[in-house]
Amino acid sequence: MKISAVIFDLNGTILEDEDEYGKAFNRVLKSLGVSSKTDYPHEKGIGVKENWLRLLEKYKIKTDKTPEMLTKETQEAYLTEIDEVTVRPGFEDFVEKLKDSGIEVALATSNTWEHVDRVLDTVNLQGVFDAVTTSDEVIYNKPDPGIFTITADKLGTERYECLVIEDSASGIEAAKRAGMKVIAISSEDDPKAVSKADLIVDGFSEITAQVIDQL
To answer: What does the alpha-carbon distance between residue 115 and residue 208 come to, in Å, rounded to a whole number?
Structure first.
């Protein structure tokens, strides 16, 4: 596969932060009188607001708070855990090799720009990406392909020359619908979620030039 750009998801892909998001959602759910009985009450990849639309329905929650208000509370709860968030091992080396090969790197995340900006600052990833696309720029979040097609347009790259790296079923579906190949970082808690990717790996160290050429 000839690629000109690699587009990364952020949460759960570049960052190891699903535990922190799980804690954030559960903290807000508890404030609403709900015990989810799971460490991960949210669905990966679809965005915090979209998760609250589902959670409000799932648990039949009665509240005067809007999904937007609950989203803000969840993001604030997540940021209290930000010191526990780490960049997935091998990411920096992988990006350096891509750039040395003349391949552009981009970020496409279902989070808002305000939140992403704060997180990238905290984990020292500001300035790494040639383009960043957030949920602020799309009508629909993943699995809609819009976030990836917009990113390709920003880079001036054909969609079939873009490789996406994701960790969620919704992100993989979005990439496929955008006409892009996708490599998934394996999910220990739900391995079936990433089964539709073109390739599944345990980490960035497994993604070599030879592996990409064979996609």
So the answer is: 31
Indicate the pTM of the whole model.
0.92
Q: Where in the chain is the domain with CATH 3.40.50.1000?
A: 5-16+85-213
9 alpha carbon, distance to own chain's centre: 4
CB atoms within 10 A of CB 105: 19
CA 32 to chain centre: 26
Distance of CA 174 to the CA centre of its chain: 11
Q: What pLDDT, in 10s, does the model give residues 106-131?
A: 999 999 999 999 999 999 999 999 99
Q: Give the helix/strand (H/E) hosting 31.
A: helix 18-31
Q: What CA–CA distance (Å, rounded) separates 83 from 182?
A: 30
* Cα 126 from chain centroid (whole Å): 16
Looking at this protein, which amino acid is placed at residue 158?
A: E
Above 80 in pLDDT, residue 190?
no
Sheet containing 162-166: order of strands: 131-133, 104-108, 5-8, 162-166, 181-185, 199-201
CATH of domain 18-83: 1.10.150
Residues near 201 by beta carbon (within 8 Å), at least 6 away in sequence: 183, 184, 185, 186, 207
3-state secondary structure of 109: coil
Q: Looking at the domain that runs over 5-16+85-213, which CATH code has it been given? A: 3.40.50.1000
Spatial neighbors of 138 by CB under 8 A, at least 6 apart, are 144, 146, 147, 150
